[in-house]
Amino acid sequence: MARIAFAGLGVMGWPMARHLSAAGHELRLFNRTREKAERFAAAYGGKPCTSAAQAADGADALITCVGDDADVRQVTVGAEGGFQSLADGALFIDHSTVSASLARVLAAENPRLLCVDAPVSGGQAGAESGQLAVMCGGSGEAVDAARPLIAAYGRRIVRIGPAGHGQLAKMANQIAIAGVVQGLSESLHFAMKAGLDTEALLDAIGKGAAQSWQMDNRAKTMVEGRFDFGFAVDLMRKDLGLVLEEARAVGASLPVAALVDQFYADVQKLGGARDDTSSLIRRLA
Ligand code: NAP
Question: Does ligand 1 lie within 6 Å of residue 96's CB atom?
């Protein structure tokens, strides 16, 4: 069993840490709002810490699941970041969705650590049930060392390539989702305008070539106008921002992803920043 410093007890990090605790690992907890770390410790054990540096002192691994690039920098190389105290040869696993360049820089500048950029797919439900898909970037040695820890909440753990490739794979995932959600939104918008019985429609086409995870899990609630679960529009805009920046850097043309990013900006203006991504259909109404 490992001693793990865990930073970021949010929607995703909390259930991940809970699975690690249930697997018998010893947790050192750090969260920007300290009360969450105390609440977690009271419910599931572990030691709340005042900084990532304190949490990482003597730990075998630092696992982070915070917000964006600035947050990851703060909990790793910041003044009271975990890298200040993390021992040589320890593991660093980042589950946040951030830029590939940050993942590359952290790994290149800290060769004494085993660094893995490991963004996830599967959302809150996947984290709660321990069924996340995890896309890993890093050396084979680092990913192999990370595997037994990630297994506490990961169903698929795939090494994509060297440092940064986990984040690049997550971007490919988000590009695919953006187009599918817009296509599904237009399909349902059309069906409702044309007066179709949407239940019968989904029954008919839901097992055909139009089938998708989004159709299986979101079409019914999109028709009902319910957008109160899943991955928030604000987070999707953050991810599409990373995608479009990387696309410029590598010379990839992403017209649909760029358009859907602007459509999500419309949803934010409609007051839907915290709604889930299937709320894209709202701007068509
Ligand atoms: P969240 O609910 O906002 O949780 C983030 C947690 O990290 C919060 O508890 C926050 O503390 C803490 N935090 C942020 N910055 C920090 C810092 N500098 N120092 C210490 N703690 C800090 O976000 P989430 O939904 O769990 O997402 C986390 C990451 O996973 C993001 O990068 C997101 O894009 C990615 N992701 C999310 C989903 C999803 O469905 N939600 C799916 C896949 C990937 P406070 O308590 O102070 O806010």
Answer: yes
